[in-house]
Design goal:
Blueprint lengths: L4 H5 L7 H15 L8 H17 L2 H10 L38 H12 L25 E7 L1 H6 L1 E12 L25 E6 L2 E6 L22 E12 L8 E4 L15 E7 L6 E3 L2 E7 L2 H6 L1 E6 L5 E6 L8 E4 L5 E3 L4 E4 L2 E6 L8 H13 L10
Parallel strand pairs: 1-7, 9-15
Antiparallel strand pairs: 2-5, 3-4, 6-7, 8-9, 10-11, 12-15, 13-14
Helix pairs in contact: 2-3, 4-5
Amino acid sequence: MNKNPYEVLGVARDANDADIKKAYHKLVMKHHPDKNPGDKSAEEKFKEINNAFDVLKDPQKRAAYDRFGAGAFAGGNGASAGAGGNPFGAGGFEFNFGGAGFDGMNLNDVVEEMMRSMGGGFGFNTGAGGGGRQSAATFRGRDMLHTVVIDLRDAYFGKTETVKFSTNVKCEKCSGHGTTDGKPAPECARCGGSGVVRTRSGFFANESVCQECGGTGRNIKNPCKQCDASGVVHKQKEIEVKIPAGIEDGARLRLSGQGEAGPLGGQPGDFYIDVRIRPDKTFERAGADLYTRASVPFNILALGGEIEIKTIDDKNVSVKISSGTQVGERLRMRGLGMPISGRASVTGRGDLYIDITTEVPKKLSEKQKKALEEFAGTTPARKKRGLF
């Protein structure tokens, strides 16, 4: 039975390499056969842990699992993997039932694409229908992830952030084909451009990486010296990311095709931006609403009046204070909160809430003291309640 490698190691799907290694070493120490002599369940768990780590430590295997799930690796965690072995090793069987598969793909194509990434697999072949293998092996570049930290005011207005990073980009000298003349190399005659060689033995079919072309599906006789026939070179890349107004903390943006370039003209990966928002000294955010505090003089609280506050977009707004307003009351200013973003534009705005506070002066003039004493003397005293 196939096991979810993320669940086996107890890590999230977006876990980084360091988290995966940490979880792996912790579990290996716990379930190692030397620490659990004679315990068959610990031995099986140890195999599962190693198989799971073998998938997640390899970017190509991890990407294949994320894309196709456990169904594309049927039998991968079985006994053929061996103790601590690779569940997606170079040999094995392929489950091929023909007919429609994932997202309109034939299951043949799903497994064959997986084999090109992994180097092999196994299962049976019913021979029912099927859409043939691709004319040439294709390789997709890796997805990339970057974190951008912005201020709350940047989230209000939106901004364009320039992101610099190092990655594989298409070799300009050979146009990504890996050849000296910059033209696509002919397909490998041995594997027909698929990158894998299939042999049959009765009911079973076995696939392995083509030794003639190294799994590339191309016969490159004169390799490009700039990229050493890979079609990609490692360089600094710079892209501009438009952060929309109203974006929330923790949101993830996707830039299609802006990730790592695929080898030999393969499709590039995507670039993801995780947006984090710094806490603001003046405003707190809850969804599209904003919260702030306003210190109101005692005389305005008692008699009523107006105060001015500055909104997040640096505008001065007049706020009416009713007579008898109490400290701790909350006033609501409609439409002065964060933008509410739709798919194409801002569709509305949240509200601004103002919590009323006041400051008690530490020093009073004689005139002020006298006025307060007169006020205190004219204030009706509360009557004491008797028994009757």
